[in-house]
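INFO  loader      accepted 1 record
INFO  loader      residues=236
INFO  predictor   begin
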Amino acid sequence: DPNLVKFGIDIAKLDNSNGNIIWYKQYRTYRNYMCVTLHQDIEIDILDNDDIIIAGNTAMQELNGQLYDHKGLLFKLNSAGDSLWCRFYNVGQPEDMSQFNDVIPTNDGGFLAVGFNVPYNYSYRTGAVLVKTDSMGLAPNAITLSLDEIPYRTEPRVIIYPNPAEEFVIVKIDQTTELKQGVLHIYNTDGKQVLTHEVSTGSNKINVSKLRAGIYYYRIYNTHSSNIIEGKFIVL
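INFO  predictor   done
INFO  writer      dumping tokens
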């Protein structure tokens, strides 16, 4: 939400052969789901039964008038992307900041998450965090997170591939979008329009072989000339 500067998590399963979206989910965990620092990545693992385990971080809501800091988070979903459970882990003092950088399943059906901890009083600079959970994500000081599943977005969704491209790109516009007919405008990094192409819902193949190698930006306008979506791609 750009107005509130709050972050959720987008999870999508794609068909590896064509890039089509099989399912798409959005969740919001408490106040924020976010990477705390640039070196943090969101870890994901597919379990033997096709369930999904995700390690990341959440910023907690205000408790007793105080905004607690980020906590390491584990989020388990089934193979359809439906939430099974979501928990954060109060490692150390409640005011400490914890962060998960990786998670692996263990032979007993539980999980092992690793990251670091920064004490609220800076009694030391940074420490390591190692949390072992059972199959339900339970561990000492595990706290169940409330989750909001955000309804599937109604604004137009576009996938552009291959990216980087060489001779052509496919601009795939989701069939559920309100866009039926529109125009794709492609610009170079100087802001000069270099190509236009009519597009519609479904897959649109566009020849980019005459474009020089580099980064290009696109905007799609509907028939009423209102900007509905934009992005970028690379030509090799």
